[in-house]
Amino acid sequence: MNKLQVKLETFFWGKPPSDPKERRLLLKLDLVILSYVCLSYFSNYLDRANLANAYTTGMKEDVGFKGNDYTYAGSMFSAGYVIGQWPSALILSSGRISPRFWFPFCMVAWGLCTLGTAWATTPHQVWGIRFTQALFEASTFSGTHYILGSWYKDYELGKRSAVFATAAQMGTLFSGIMQGGIISNLEGKNGLRGWQFLFIIDFAITIPIAIFGFLMFPGTPHTTKAFWLTEEERQMCLQRLPHTEHVKMTPKTLGKSIKKLIKSWRWYLFTSLFTLSATSFEKVGVYTEFNLWLKSAGYTKQQISYYPSIFTATAIVSTYILTLISDQTRNRFIINPIMFGAVFISSVMLLNWNHLNKGAHFFAYIIGGLGYAGQASNFAWANELCRDDDVLRSLTLFSMNRNLWYQIVAWPVVEAPKFRNGQIATLVTGAASVLVAIAIVYCSKKYPPNLPEPEIVEINGKLTNINENEMNSNQRVSTPNDEETKDVENLHGAISTVRHV
């Protein structure tokens, strides 16, 4: 590779390994692991986002939604999502059920629930289906961040977490486009409404992805038997990351892990961080305020399906760009005040509702797309600071993703489209999330986690920190000479002297 190629790859994807074998391994991991989790999350959000699209394009009238029925459907989903978090965390960290089986099984289950929504005839049926669907969807988001942290080094995590997070927005983007096409071409075909076709097509998309996961997904480095990995590559996967004890889950080890969990500032602060930031910074998408405003403003069904795609595209681009900034500066904190600034502008504008023209409304909703960057950077941050304990890492990641009460209290659909209380609550919780992020920075320096010791080795009579060099290489772009390359490659086979700092 020439220097320009190395610079571009380093900036957009991270410094490529100098060892050709590790470079080939990393490519394999990206092609299988990253492609599957992105497709899975795409399907996850496609199934989830389509309720909003269906509701605003005919489902509300056909199923008989009244008052806050739609809000309760969202809250039932949140309840199932919260309840489903810890069982998935324990299943993944215990090693008793391989992620290769668990993830595809959950996909098939939520796909069937999605299919069932097409024939719901009352709001109560929708509530029950959404609750059950969420129990299985809870495995995907936090579970994937746990899996990514199991296979990728810290400096490889940020950009891959960003690609994964944007897969959700791609699902939302595709949902709106698909619904617009369905309304134009399939409405009334075979006696079915357009919103029913939406759920049927979702199911048809979900099942092939689940089959792909069952056949190809490798599980975790400690347990993988993936046919596409050689034995040498399996060992390399274990050697690439700092050593952490892989604990088989038993009542005794679970008790010890939970005891350690409740004593750890990481669990409290990271759980508070994402709970607060997700409920505030993701407001435009989570509470579908853009769609509901379009419906109230008299836009057509096709316009209601297509126009929110602008917001979604903003979320996709900003998530990746802000994660690049986070990686280049090696500063996970900085994304949080940036997100708050964007959502602050959005909420303050919408609180001055009567002074906004249509263009200002569009801007207020679209700028809210910047609030999704925390899905990548904050979970990468948690992964990095919980490296020392696999169970703590799993339970922390799964605990971060919960907001059961918020929609009922602050975003009831009867207050659409202004949602004055929701905008005020967003300003409060958004500011609080930035304060929590500051607390994480403070505690990580004042009470640093017991992360694996850096490995110090002797190269040509000089002591070198391998992990630090790898991290710094994400910022320094250089082409190693042949002698340096040989030294680095030899380290993987035989390290002459190891000392701990």
Automatic annotation (TrEMBL):
It comes from Kwoniella pini CBS 10737. GO terms for cellular component: plasma membrane. Keywords: Membrane, Transmembrane, Transmembrane helix, Transport. The chain crosses the membrane at residues 101-121, 127-149, 161-183, 195-217, 267-286, 306-326, 333-353, 424-443. The keyword Transmembrane helix applies. GO terms for molecular function: pantothenate transmembrane transporter activity. One of its GO terms (biological process) is pantothenate import across plasma membrane. Belongs to the major facilitator superfamily. Allantoate permease family. It is found in: Membrane. The keyword Transport applies. This is MFS transporter, ACS family, pantothenate transporter. InterPro entries: MFS (IPR011701), MFS_trans_sf (IPR036259). Pfam families: MFS_1. It is a multi-pass membrane protein. Residues 470-480 have a biased composition (Polar residues).
